[in-house]
Design brief:
Layout: E1 2-4, E2 10-15, E3 21-25, E4 30-35, E5 63-64, E6 86-87, E7 103-109, H1 113-118, E8 123-131, E9 137-145, E10 151-157, E11 160-162, E12 169-172, E13 178-181, E14 187-190, E15 202-206, E16 212-217, E17 222-229, E18 233-238, H2 240-244, E19 258-272, E20 277-288
Antiparallel strand pairs: 1-2, 2-3, 3-4, 5-10, 6-7, 7-8, 8-9, 9-20, 10-19, 11-19, 12-16, 13-14, 13-15, 15-18, 16-17, 17-20, 18-19
The structure holds 6-O-phosphono-beta-D-tagatofuranose.
């Protein structure tokens, strides 16, 4: 059902028969809540989030398009997350029937005249947010070059996972990968560790990552499974204490309860010729962790 959010923008809620739910705001096309069938909130939103028009809320899943990060001419993470989207009732069907018995909503962002001034490309960005019977959340973005000259973009689903204690969280699936370290001018390193654990600020782009990543929250005995297609990179970010204190819309200690694991296309920009379309899929599951031995 459609409700109004903090500044009057529409928020669409999707529910699964077993009680799971997702809420997505037309402000930024941003998923702002994902709850399991026990009503537990699985995404982090800062208690100091600033709810004002055309500013992404600190949490949920902001859509970073057409630029990830601040290496470009646009504002940090591009303009899509700061724009008002519309519900798209005439969304063309997904090619491979990717909508089997899922509750979903289709959103659309097209450039305004202002947008075309700062990014002169005729694009359509369609986002389908779906909830499966099992409560899995999927986001499918399709970027189409309507009829302009070729353009390139980078993209990320900036996913704020809610965790119980960051020092008890580890990521599996990124071992041995190269990463670009945002904390040292995107210098390239190779991940040596087995699972990735957290003791300080981390801001890395793991490149060429596999299709499945696991984020294990030991205390909550919960594992997030991240599946992706068309998004070769994974951005891992936790601001830790010092950086947290510099963010006005983020509590000083909130770094302990969140971890960003963003399915992304960052290292290599995506280029579309006129008429071409790109699809980026993210599927999130939250499953009880098998009682892995405490080692
Ligand atoms: O996801 C990593 C990152 O690029 C960090 O460098 C940090 O800036 C974060 O995104 C949040 O960016 P934002 O513009 O939402 O404050």
């Amino acid at each position: 059902e459609v409700t109004k959010d903090w500044n009057g923008a529409d928020q669409v809620a999707i529910r699964s028969p077993r009680g799971a739910s997702v809420r997505v705001s037309l402000q930024g096309g941003q998923v702002v809540s994902w709850r399991n069938d026990r009503g537990e909130e699985l995404l982090f939103t800062s208690s100091k989030a600033i709810f004002k028009p055309l500013k992404a809320v600190r949490g949920g899943i902001p859509v970073c398009f057409p630029q990830f990060g601040n290496c470009g001419t646009l504002e940090q993470h591009g303009f899509a997350r700061n724009k008002t989207w519309i519900v798209d009732d005439e969304a063309p069907p997904l090619s491979n029937g990717d909508n089997n018995n899922k509750a979903s909503v289709d959103l659309l962002l097209k450039p305004s005249d202002d947008d075309l001034k700062c990014w002169p490309h005729c694009f359509e960005l369609r986002l389908r947010v779906s909830l499966s019977m099992d409560g899995d959340l999927s986001l499918i973005s399709r970027v189409r070059n309507v009829n302009g000259k070729p353009f390139s973009f980078s993209f990320a689903y900036h996913t704020y996972l809610s965790v119980s204690d960051i020092s008890e969280v580890r990521i599996e699936g990124l071992e041995t990968l190269d990463y670009l370290d945002n904390l040292s001018q995107r210098e390239r390193f190779t991940e040596q560790g087995d699972a990735i654990t957290f003791e300080s600020e981390v801001d890395r782009v793991y490149v060429g990552s596999p299709g499945v990543i696991a984020v294990l929250d030991h205390e909550k005995k919960r594992t997030f499974i991240i599946r992706k297609e068309g998004l070769p990179d994974i951005v891992v970010w936790n601001p830790w204490e010092k950086k947290s204190k510099t963010m006005s819309d983020f509590g000083d200690d909130e770094y302990k309860q969140m971890l960003c694991v963003n399915a992304a296309a960052v290292e290599r920009a995506i280029t579309l010729k006129p008429g071409e379309e790109w699809t980026g899929k993210l599927e999130l599951s939250a499953v009880p962790s098998t009682n892995c031995s405490d080692h």
